[in-house]
Write a structure and sequence with these properties.
By secondary structure, the protein is α/β, with parallel strands linked by helices. It has a domain of about 55 residues. Helices cover about 40% and strands about 15% of the residues. It contains 4 helices and 4 strands; from the N terminus they run βαβαβαβα. The strands form 2 sheets. A two-stranded parallel ribbon has the order 1-2. It has a two-stranded parallel sheet with strand order 3-4. Helix 3 links the parallel strand 3 and strand 4. The radius of gyration is 15 Å and the shape is globular. The relative contact order is 0.15.
């Protein structure tokens, strides 16, 4: 199941159309669902909707050019903390990033 949180101000139909096209283009045999936060924080929605999941995949934001390494590291650490208790978690980025450098092991 592919899930996407739709925040206020986003066009739910447009996102559902994109997800449908993505699933078809990638020839994925899966269903998809959009989730409305309803006042909850994103990771609360992820936890609530992932109770039966065997794996959770999350997208990482790319560092803002004006964001310091310390700020981005803090963001990354918050993502790791917020995913505690979830099944296997994969954190993905569509852009090239040196995670070793970001988290201080590269």
């Amino acid at each position: 199941m592919l899930k996407r949180i739709v925040t206020e101000g986003e066009d739910r139909k447009e996102i559902e159309t994109y997800m449908k096209e993505f699933v078809e283009e990638q020839r994925l045999e899966m269903e998809f669902e959009t989730l409305a936060p309803g006042g909850r924080k994103p990771f609360e929605v992820i936890h609530a909707s992932s109770t039966d999941a065997s794996m959770v995949m999350l997208g990482m934001k790319h560092p803002d050019p004006e964001e310091s390494e310390a700020d981005y590291l803090n963001y990354y650490r918050n993502v790791i903390r917020a995913t505690e208790g979830l099944p296997v978690v994969m954190v993905l980025s569509a852009e090239e990033m040196d995670f070793g450098e970001i988290i201080g092991v590269g």
